[in-house]
């Protein structure tokens, strides 16, 4: 085999964000852009000679191109074997499982998650380590440093592999095994959930709609929900992954999954509605007439997980990202288990899961998951909900209301200001940060500020620290205003404002969410000055 060493020059914008490197396709399509990043990644890792690497992505435009390049660079750098999902497809949780199941050294996941795809859309590359989880910051920092110094990459001068053919091929001296992307994952789900009970529920007329948004979960959901659980054909809609997601925005929220939301709120609503995102790690859960916020979903899943066989012995602990509502904290308190608050980003859960300190994790950004993999997992959340519904024999709305009656309700909303001027956004955050010390102890609109800080985290397992993870202003009544800059946008900056207040178990749980939080929205606007600072008079997305 011929290995070519190609001279290159660094790009200065290859800093991985919350979840890997995400940019417009046009940026990734520049000569050497993918090659530089992948070589910088391999230069930052040690001990992979002869080992196995997993490669797969969400099928978006440029997926196949990037995969062929990654395979040839892996071959030239000495990996022994790569496992690739057929057609280049692996959902993010699916890839995490394949890495763990096959004892791989790590994996490259090609995805820009919920961001739009197609030639004008976004692309992304993320590296996951041997536990199946996203690389920790010490690795992503090393990769970024390397991208700024790279002078050459190594690539095998061999033909492309046939991504459509399950089986074994060669790429130079390296073995390439194309695997069925769904099989291992579906088998794992069967070990966690009571498929018989869910099958019986569907057989007795339970109806569901799952919107795969023309993204990666289509084949997974069709196999599991329709084939293995016996839901009628047509339960899964938009089930064929398309390179541009059919022109849609594969983010399962109330804006981009509007059709599903309207169906679920209408007179012909099925019993249960769900959706997942571009790469299959996010979820949207809607019962008939009842949207479940991701934060509430985390709390309800944690409180009921013992009803599924995989969690029958109970859960060790719960972790949530800082901006996620405190609903799950109340469940942990009642169960007498550990509760952890981490920075945004699934990578921060990895150590806690590996150490067995938490079993279930979740984020307000529509992510929930458990120790079965090291990524959030959209279909897992859907299946756990189905398992709970099958055992409790109650509707989603009943379960949600019952949960609030027991634990109280954390009214919660997130307001996103997307693609705002980056300088203006940074100035707003810096300005608020500077005013934080003076806020503590003040009474604002009748609420006393209990704390005001920039969230910093010390990992309890390895002691690593992460600072400047978002500004929080907490009040003595449990209300909270959080402001942070998104780490997943690709153009300008996205400001996220998170608002929360607690209504006790015997309080009023029937308010409309935005109305319930209106006084906090007004207060946040005065404190932060988003409208003034960005020139926007309303958020782009409210969830
Ligand atoms: C990624 C991360 C999540 C994070 C989310 C939002 O999700 O994996 O942990 O919560 O981004 O991050 P941000 O608020 O910085 O935009 P995904 O689904 O995009 O991979």
UniProtKB/TrEMBL annotation:
<dbReference type="InterPro" id="IPR016055">
    <property type="entry name" value="A-D-PHexomutase_a/b/a-I/II/III"/>
</dbReference>
<keyword id="KW-0413">Isomerase</keyword>
<feature type="domain" description="Alpha-D-phosphohexomutase alpha/beta/alpha">
    <location>
        <begin position="14"/>
        <end position="153"/>
    </location>
</feature>
<dbReference type="InterPro" id="IPR005841">
    <property type="entry name" value="Alpha-D-phosphohexomutase_SF"/>
</dbReference>
<dbReference type="Pfam" id="PF24947">
    <property type="entry name" value="PGM1_C_vert_fung"/>
</dbReference>
<dbReference type="Pfam" id="PF02880">
    <property type="entry name" value="PGM_PMM_III"/>
</dbReference>
<dbReference type="InterPro" id="IPR036900">
    <property type="entry name" value="A-D-PHexomutase_C_sf"/>
</dbReference>
<dbReference type="GO" id="GO:0004614">
    <property type="term" value="F:phosphoglucomutase activity"/>
</dbReference>
<dbReference type="GO" id="GO:0005975">
    <property type="term" value="P:carbohydrate metabolic process"/>
</dbReference>
<dbReference type="InterPro" id="IPR005844">
    <property type="entry name" value="A-D-PHexomutase_a/b/a-I"/>
</dbReference>
<dbReference type="Pfam" id="PF02878">
    <property type="entry name" value="PGM_PMM_I"/>
</dbReference>
<dbReference type="InterPro" id="IPR016066">
    <property type="entry name" value="A-D-PHexomutase_CS"/>
</dbReference>
<dbReference type="InterPro" id="IPR005846">
    <property type="entry name" value="A-D-PHexomutase_a/b/a-III"/>
</dbReference>
<dbReference type="InterPro" id="IPR005845">
    <property type="entry name" value="A-D-PHexomutase_a/b/a-II"/>
</dbReference>
<feature type="domain" description="Alpha-D-phosphohexomutase alpha/beta/alpha">
    <location>
        <begin position="295"/>
        <end position="407"/>
    </location>
</feature>
<dbReference type="GO" id="GO:0000287">
    <property type="term" value="F:magnesium ion binding"/>
</dbReference>
<keyword id="KW-0479">Metal-binding</keyword>
<keyword id="KW-0460">Magnesium</keyword>
<feature type="domain" description="Alpha-D-phosphohexomutase alpha/beta/alpha">
    <location>
        <begin position="184"/>
        <end position="286"/>
    </location>
</feature>
<protein>
    <recommendedName>
        <fullName>phosphoglucomutase (alpha-D-glucose-1,6-bisphosphate-dependent)</fullName>
        <ecNumber>5.4.2.2</ecNumber>
    </recommendedName>
</protein>
<keyword id="KW-0597">Phosphoprotein</keyword>
<dbReference type="GO" id="GO:0005829">
    <property type="term" value="C:cytosol"/>
</dbReference>
<comment type="similarity">
    <text>Belongs to the phosphohexose mutase family.</text>
</comment>
<dbReference type="Pfam" id="PF02879">
    <property type="entry name" value="PGM_PMM_II"/>
</dbReference>
<dbReference type="InterPro" id="IPR045244">
    <property type="entry name" value="PGM"/>
</dbReference>
